[in-house]
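G., the chain you wanted modeled:
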Amino acid sequence: GPNGAGKTSTMRMIYCFSPVSAGKLEVMGMDVMRAARKIKAKLGVVSQEDNLDPDLTVLQNLVLYATYFDVPTSEARRRAEELLTFLSLQEKRHQKIDKLSGGMKRRLMIARALINSPEVLILDEPTTGLDPQARHLIWDKLRALKAGGVTMVLTTHYMEEAHRLCDRLVIMDHGKILTEGEPGALVEKYVGREVLEIRASHGILQTLKNSIDTEAGHAARETELVGDTLYVLIREPDGTLLEKVPEIQKFDFHLRPASLEDVFLKLAGRELRD
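Predicted structure as tokens:
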């Protein structure tokens, strides 16, 4: 969902940080209002905010956190070393937190969330603000965890991240679920197979939009004019749209596969969110 959709508020209720504002919420079959302590013991949480202890080293952050789950010190050190190796932080084990890059801090927060061998890993926008290299490294590690059987629940507004990592999605806005399902099925349901983007002046595109709406028939699922760009959602990539409306080829246009981002913008709107 976009900024302000309610993603973080929902996550905080799931990991028993905030009270449930309405209705009933169960995690792993347990009511969060009655079994918060049991639920927390089975969760690993990577929050949006950097809440690492700046006075401790990388290794100390992990070992100390493990004590909250009654993990013996020797076992905590073993798990910590294993996780630091897995998340490519072994050479930073004795560094203080302020010496780490943003990507390293996020990886350390993931390692810390795994120190208690959780049944479910909660990640709230795990790669926001990171450069592409750091983001892809974290994606690789999360995919490895997923392949190893770790259940993950994450929030994101990066549609590429959602597509790469998630088997099932919930798109939400203003605290309400707009839709849910498997990524590919959502693209097929709301957009189709391809999207044609046509660029020209708004007035000319309005005329072209009217032509497409009138002449394209089932070839065009939907058209949307936004500023100086006309978006045409195409059901099947069979080329019939350009045959039925040949004047399209007079314009600057780009034909591309439909994506989750198209679904997101269709449901949540294209207006800027602060």
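Residues 192-258 form a domain with the Alpha-Beta Plaits fold (CATH 3.30.70.920).

Shout if anything looks off.
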